[in-house]
Amino acid sequence: MAVNPKMIVIARESRGLTQSELAEKIDLPVSSLSRVEFGSLGLRDEMFDKLCKELNYPKEFFSQNFSIYPPNIHYRKRVTLSPKIVRKADALMNIYRSNIEKLLQTISLESANIPIIDDEKYSSPRQVASYLRSYWRVEKGPITDLVTLVEKHGIIVIMFDYETDRIDGRSMVTEYGHPIIFLNKNFSGDRQRMTLAHELGHIIMHLRTIPTFGRDEEAEAFEFAAEFLMPESQIKHNLPARLSLEIFADQKRIWKVSMAAVLYWAEQLGRITQNQSRYIWAQYSGRGYKKHEPIMIEIDQPTLVKRMINMFMQDRQFSKDEIAEIFCLSKDELEQKFFSSVRTLRVA
Fold it and tell me: According to the model, what pLDDT value does residue 78 have?
């Protein structure tokens, strides 16, 4: 069986290992492993068996041929992360992407329903968000289940363990044109909803554009997300002249986003004075809400990929063992990635 050296790199990084760490585990000089990954040196059968066991991938995984796609290529995250964390997340997301593309080879999934935005007609993120609500025929008021709405329009959502609280979410696009949004599975429902709308904003506004120097695409994505989830024309009636922390808690229950997000949005809409804002932020911090807000919001659960896999299993009579073989994963990892349940938090 021919081994693709790039897949050794992907496998190693997906397990969060450096070259020296893997070399030590399989008792191979790091210089030799480096040559293996560059393709200038082959592995003996017994050493390849050892590598497969250590990385917990079947041999077939290493004969695949796909490249690492960088997520979010149009903007930079606000936090600095260790290269090991970034490489592990990127490798795992690309393995997900490759497996989803294998499903899409057989299953007919309608193209993602993403409108082309006329920059002259819809010049601001708020206008784009308002247009998308109209284009997708979103009913007036809060969006009850954002994940279901997004998946309905051909955008795939994956609950993903970044193993850090410094990444909210990232996104990439399959070869078939379907965006995949990876949400941090360990965050609360309100934070996941805001992240999902934020990533949606990047997909709608920035996917087909060339990054422009000085353009704050993160701020644009937040403005899009806030307007999409809390339209100004609707939420302004809920924000009286005298605002309080309790009012923001009530708005969290209504719109299913964090109190902090509602407060930021009220600031951008000019619905709160600077003095009011400073006072409420001080209260917010003093009560420890920066770490844990009150009122738990239900987590919206993705179903699109599971439904695609069910089609394989029911309509095409594939077993889990066969799907694991197609995905080049162990059965345990298949279960963990695609069949494990997502925790649910209830609305208070």
Answer: 53
**Residue 185 belongs to a domain:** yes
Report the CATH number that the domain containing residue 21 is assigned in CATH.
1.10.260.40
CB 160 within 8 A of CB 192: no
pLDDT confidence of residue 42: 93
Express as a percent the part of the chain with pLDDT over 90. Answer: 79
Query: Where a domain ends, among 44, 65, 86?
Result: 65
Per-residue pLDDT reduced to its tens digit, 84-113:
999 999 999 999 999 999 999 988 888 899
What is the DSSP secondary-structure string of 268-325? HTT-S-HHHHHHHHHHHHHTTTTT--SSPPPPP---HHHHHHHHHHHTS---HHHHHH
> pLDDT value at position 72?
67
DSSP 3-state of 241 = coil
Q: Which candidate, 42, 348, 8, places its Cα nearest to that of 189?
A: 348
Q: What is the pTM of this model?
A: 0.92
Q: Are residues 58 and 75 in the same domain?
A: no
For 78, the domain range is 69-233+290-348
Q: Do residues 235 and 265 make contact, with C-beta atoms less than 8 angstroms apart?
A: yes
d(CA 192, CA 182): 10
The rounded percent of the chain whose pLDDT value lies above 70 is 93
Q: Among residues 22, 42, 65, which one ends one of the domains?
A: 65
Instruction: Specify if 221 maps to a domain.
Output: yes
Distance (Å, whole) CA 257 – CA 300: 12
Residues 89 and 207 in one domain: yes
| β partners of residue 158 | 182
Shared domain check, 166 and 41: no
